Amino acid sequence: MPKLKGFNGEDRYNFLLALVGYLGHRGEVSLAEVSEHFNLDEGYVVKALTSLNEATATVGGFEEWPFYVDLDLLDEGVISLTTAEVIDDVPRLSTRQAAAISSGLSYLATIPEFAGSTEIPALIRMIAAGSSRGGGEIISIAPGSVEAGAETIRSAILENRIISCEYINRKGEKSVREIEPLRLDVQAGVWYLRGYCPINKGVRNFLIEHMRSIEILPRTISPEASEVGEIEDATYSAEVTDTTVTIEVAPEAYRLISDFQTVTEPKDLGSGTIRAEIKVGHLPNIGRLIAKYGGAARVISPPEAREFVKAYALQALGEASTLETPEVE
Amino acid sequence: MAIEASWKPAKTDKSERLFQLTCVLLYSERGLTKRELFHAVDSYREVSSDEDDVALNKKFERDKSDLREMGIQVSNPDPKSEPDDIRYTISADTFAWPEDVKFDRRQLQLLNLAAQVWAQASLSSDANRGLVRLRGLGIEPGASDLAGFAPRLRTHEPSFLPLSQAVEERIEVSFDYRKPDGEVSRRSVQPWILRNVDGQWLLVCWDKSQNSVRNFLLKRIVSKVAFRSEQISETEKTVINFTAPTSEDVAAALADLTRHTESQVATIRVKKDTPAWFHFQLDSQDPTADISISYMDGHLLAEQLSEYASDLTVISPPELSRIIRARFEAVASAHA
What we know:
The complex is a heterodimer. Chain A has helices spanning 9-26, 31-37, 42-54, 71-75, 95-109, 119-129, 150-158, 223-226, 255-259, 286-291, 303-316, and strands at residues 29-30, 57-59, 62-64, 67-69, 78-79, 81-84, 139-141, 161-168, 174-187, 190-197, 202-207, 211-220, 243-249, 267-268, 274-280, 297-301. Among the domains of chain A are: 9-84, Arc Repressor Mutant, subunit A, CATH 1.10.10; 150-226, SH3 type barrels; 243-316, Alpha-Beta Plaits. Chain A is an alpha+beta fold. Chain A is globular and about 85 Å long. Chain A has eleven helices and 16 strands. In chain A, strands 11-10-9-8-12 form a five-stranded antiparallel sheet. A four-stranded antiparallel sheet of chain A has the order 14-15-13-16. Chain A has a two-stranded antiparallel sheet with strand order 1-5. The relative contact order of chain A is 0.07. Chain B is of the alpha+beta class. Chain B has four domains: 15-91, Arc Repressor Mutant, subunit A (Orthogonal Bundle); 105-136, no CATH class; 160-256; 264-334, no CATH class. Helix content of chain B is 38%, strand content 22%. Chain B contains eleven helices and 14 strands. The interface between A and B is large, with 132 and 134 residues. Strand 9 of chain A pairs parallel with strand 4 (149-152) of chain B, so a sheet runs across the interface.
């Protein structure tokens, strides 16, 4: 992961407090280690330390210097905070920080990997105890559904091994394929495998519910697959051959916009309607994608895309359509 | 390593001011009056000459509320003092972690994964700031056997953030809500908790006009969320706070929601070897299979089933077929 170059406002304030607490715990420590630990650029850590060093507090008519960082040592890449009179630990978590982390934990607890584990409930209790102010839960997560096969794929990812499986496309056609698995994604109860496809020579998304007879092969993944860096969270990634489709969505269908990578900044048309341009790989898919929102999403252009949506809806209604059945991969 | 000359953050960056305010408050054991604070913090002192007291007070109040949001509790131990004599301090336990809260490497690794659940969703910055504090405790996360695993919560709804704040701070809100039949009405509620069910966000709340607990789907909120407020003087307004529900009340509301979902069951006939067949993880030699699905909301189920329109038939209830049909008719006419 590339190191952050720094941040401002609340994030910076939060980091300054955490840094003082950390240096209190660690004592003398190398700049490289601090930068690694907080995943921050070394230059930024130095800036933060300088800020601490320069901090003054005028109390009772006297100017106090709460922190002293040894700048000679810092020049050699060693951090030493020799006085930290007022702050001796990291502040407890704010209510929102605790809520964000503990709801993240609750979400993990709904996933088979962690279901029934006692470590998550124990952590949730510790996070609540470590928050600045008690108070009720802000967010709660209902248990989700279990996906068979996910566990096998997880083991393959951890062992860097290639898998083979029967993959069923949307037309119900089966094929046996090899996938070099990289990451398992769970979003809204849907499990995806982000894997390197040796045929397409790139990262592809596979719906785990469409995989059968998953087997871990005795071969490790290729250099090409292991060199894949960060994988984008968006499940649709745009390609040059994609068609740009202009859509308008009501709040009930905002999800469409976050599921796709939009081409231009979505535009608010007022009264909740948003216009956006999305990239669609296989245009006939647009029918299924748009129709599920029951009128809350509308294709504006191109006309072929509108036709596909209309045809999908009419076919579902059992009415004759002028277009062939939408082809889906 | 050379220290860069331009280490100072932008002048507009409030982190310096908040940090100095925190240090000053921590220095003074018996607390500081506003007058003393305005003298002690550089950027307060700088403004005091050309701005009046009202502006300065406003700034201080805003900073205090920023600190509170970050979990730094500024309090005045003796609230009965005259306004000019009120002394502000930071509660002693703000920087003291309970004895039994000690994380090990494996736990920190799990906390990392839990924070990443919010990547690119509404609470990502709070999750990350929390993680920075947990890292400040000095533990190095364990070697990652959790790699290759990226569970994500999504928030597509602009109402998520204001509602989470309103739940946290017990503030009454109002918003326009559009029922599936298209009818829009203004709702005034006391928000209790946000609940995620199969990826859908719900607000569980006390509906003031209905005088009962209600659940609202965030995606059907079609206006901005307004914090309700009352006039306290000619110039000032304040939000309307409500008394927190008991945890029993919240648990009962969530249990009701689960019971409601369990009580509504649809029967669907699925064609063999279609995408729907695989979606529902069916396995049988027959050309079709009937499945029962319990559902929270007919329109949400209709939305889910619409993806597999040609793979399945609704056996019951008839209402569900009607909804699916109406939705496809709306799609067809929107694209006519």
